[in-house]
Amino acid sequence: MDNTPPLTATPAAKNTAQAATNRWQAAAWATLGAGSCIGLLAGLQEMLTQNLSWSLLLMAPFGATMVLLYALPQSPLAQPKNIFFGHLLTCALGLLLLHTLGVSPLTLGLGTGLGVGLMMLTNTTHPPAGANPLLVMLAGADWQFLLTPVVSGLLLILAFGWAYHKSLYIKGISKHSWPKTS
Asked: Within 13 Å of residue 133, how many CA atoms lie on the same side as its CB?
């Protein structure tokens, strides 16, 4: 008679397997949230304008915002205040520099540096927004850019993010609500 115990996973192996499963589930939910949010914005933009080349609701830094909002929603950098005001302040700064001093290596550097400092001083640091002064100045944007795509896109992103995270929390898929409450 064989007295060897049956093969079972050690607690460490079980924890490692559970961590891998959790990582895959979190990645799947983040993928769904980010893809759905940008897809919704693009669909609305196409429906309203019949044109995806004109930027009514989208700008490239919003793609990076999706990483924080859906992959790291509890990060201080992914909170609504940071997302909204980080983008708004840095876009306004880029527009101000563009329309007063023009585009040069100096103003591009100044816009990026001042944008970082401004977000830090206002406690609205949101790394994707650091690209906004460059985007605004290199694209030669006008002041309308603040309304579309910045404010219009951000309001929809925040509304979708809130509804998405709330539904995951209510269904017990997520342990945390968004925005972070404490």
From this structure: 29
Could you give the percent of the chain with pLDDT greater than 70?
89
Three-class secondary structure assignment of 68-121: HHHHCCCCHHHCHHHHHHHHHHHHHHHHHHHHHHCCCHHHHHHHHHHHHHHHHH
Cβ neighbours of residue 145 closer than 8 Å, sequence gap 6 or more? 55, 91, 95, 136
Question: CA geometry: angle at 130 spanning 54 and 145, to 5°?
Answer: 30
Length of the chain as a residue count: 182
CA dist 135 and 118 (Å) reads 17
Number of Cβ within a 10 Å radius of residue 56? 18
Global pTM reads 0.87
Q: Which amino acid, one-letter code, is at 105?
A: P
